[in-house]
Sequence to fold (241 residues):
Amino acid sequence: MDESPGKEHVAFTNWAISKGIEINGIAPARFPGRRLGMIATKTIEVIPQTAMLSIDSIPSSFVDLFPEGTSIHGILAAYLTHGDTKTLKGIDAWRNVWPNWQELEDSTPILWPSHLRRSNSAFEDEDNSSTPSLLPPSVSGLWNSFEKVPVGVDYDTRYQNMLGQEEKRLTHAWEQVLSVFPKTEWKTFAYYWLIINSRSFYYISPGKNEPEDWNDAIAMVPYADYFNHEDNAVSPLILSL
Fold:
């Protein structure tokens, strides 16, 4: 992956430094399909890995219960649902600040009734006038032709019909967990899956390569998950962090 953002961004970085802005261990970078963003240029140890919730912090005896290919996201949610009660009590202070189920229902389209989360097309009102989708086209599924019609931009088609993709991932993870814990309650598992989905960070285990499915590069980071969360947000259409 070519991470170079371009000469103009290097010049801007130098200008920012000349103005007294302190830049330490981070830099702008170009991400295929996601345009520009920020990367760490060195290991920044602010929150220890032992405090994170990742596939590395879950006991191997629990992870080994699941068949090969089970999503890491699903295993993390299963651990919060079925993990050792005494161990999980150790993160109660963290869990107590997570949104409750009602807050997720209000803010997460995947839990909305079908007439609010139309994922294929708009519907018609009683007067037969077309009503636009409440969700952005890339989320609702109304944009689904970029791979067929060239648009002249660097765009990754996996960002089309995001709601439908999220529903599929949640359903698949649910089925995988049921194969190990048949009595898993849907609402409890879905709650933790969505908590992870909305508050997680991109994470790759030390010494390992980036997974084929980027959704498996996932971890929760305490306190850092305050970033990009607002209790009085202007728009509640949150799918993921």
Observations:
- Confidence is low (pLDDT under 50) at residues 119-129, 231-241.
